[in-house]
Specification:
Blueprint: E1 3-9, H1 15-28, E2 31-38, H2 59-79, E3 93-96, E4 102-103, H3 104-110, E5 116-120, H4 131-140, E6 145-148, E7 159-163, H5 168-176, H6 178-181, E8 186-192, H7 202-210, E9 216-221, H8 228-238, E10 243-247, H9 253-259, H10 262-269, E11 274-277
Parallel strand pairs: 1-2, 1-5, 2-3, 2-4, 5-6, 7-8, 7-10, 8-9, 10-11
Antiparallel strand pairs: 6-11
Length: 278
């Protein structure tokens, strides 16, 4: 986790996101980069070319928004005594992407050169992280995404729960979490009765992790209400977890929209940091 991307929007509560990114940076002696973002606006073709369609954001507004994002990010880093990055010098530092205001789609592509992207909980609350931003990061970066809870954590990765549903997505999340797993005090591989897809068992994952020097244990939890996301969060809280590792959208986004799903529930309700991958 030597390079961390932090998308910043010109509104909302981002203090917990910045605090979480800083905690990660301090843990791994990382470079932290800020990026100003805005929603993707659809291209609208005018019916009457003489009338045209005005842009939803003027160039002046875009510059003002980008400047506000940068000031917020840099002010936080300087307040916490994080030095500006110097080329070729390793260690905890920060920098800023200079290209003005960028859409979610750009952020998703740019995140491919970072070890992790840190975003807030997309719970639908006004002024908080948008779900479209989180989905762009999950589906486009090809890298892990850290979801920061509304209240910044004091620790990350001392007790880790892996929500193991045997899926490809969760396997990728586990691989992305290895820097945390090798340093954790306790690692629990959690399965739920009747939840998941065909694949290796929790005990087989425990065996694989042991080859990386990770001492993990497998447990099976109950899900009497058939609400896996809720059961995972409750089990994680009972275990004193300060990092949850989970694959994202094993079911399609459309299916989760209509029928619900573990990913959607956890994204909207988590109170602990979550490392996800798709």
């Amino acid at each position: 986790m030597k390079s961390i991307l932090v998308p910043i929007e010109d509104h909302g509560v981002i203090e917990s996101v910045l605090d979480t990114a800083l905690l990660l940076g301090q843990t791994f002696d990382s470079y932290i980069e800020g990026l100003a973002i805005t929603p993707d606006y659809p291209v609208v073709l005018p019916v009457d070319i003489a009338i045209g369609v005005p842009s939803p954001i003027t160039p002046e507004n875009r510059q003002e928004m980008a400047t506000a994002c940068r000031e917020r990010f840099e002010g936080f880093m300087l307040k916490n005594s994080v030095p500006r990055s110097t080329a070729g010098v390793p260690g905890l530092s920060f920098g800023w992407r200079q290209d003005g205001l960028n859409e979610d789609a750009f952020m998703g592509a740019y995140g491919r050169v970072f070890d992790v992207t840190v975003l807030g909980r997309p719970d639908g609350t006004n002024g908080h992280t948008r779900l479209s931003t989180v989905e762009s990061a999950l589906f486009e970066t090809g890298r892990p995404v850290m979801i920061a809870p509304p209240i910044a954590p004091k620790t990350i990765g001392r007790t880790i729960v892996i929500a193991w549903n045997r899926s490809t997505e969760t396997a990728r999340a586990v691989l992305g979490s290895l820097p945390f797993l090798v340093n954790a005090g306790r690692v629990v591989v959690l399965e739920l009765d009747g939840w998941g897809v065909p694949g290796p068992s929790a005990s087989e994952l425990v065996r694989s992790l042991s080859m990386h020097g990770v001492r993990a244990e497998a447990i099976t939890g109950a899900d009497p209400s058939n609400k896996a996301g809720d059961a995972i969060l409750k089990e994680s809280a009972a275990l004193g977890c300060d990092l949850l590792v989970k694959g994202a959208y094993t079911q399609s986004r459309l299916r989760q929209m209509f029928f619900g799903g573990a990913t959607s529930h956890i994204l909207g309700n988590t109170t602990i940091p979550v490392l996800m991958a798709h």
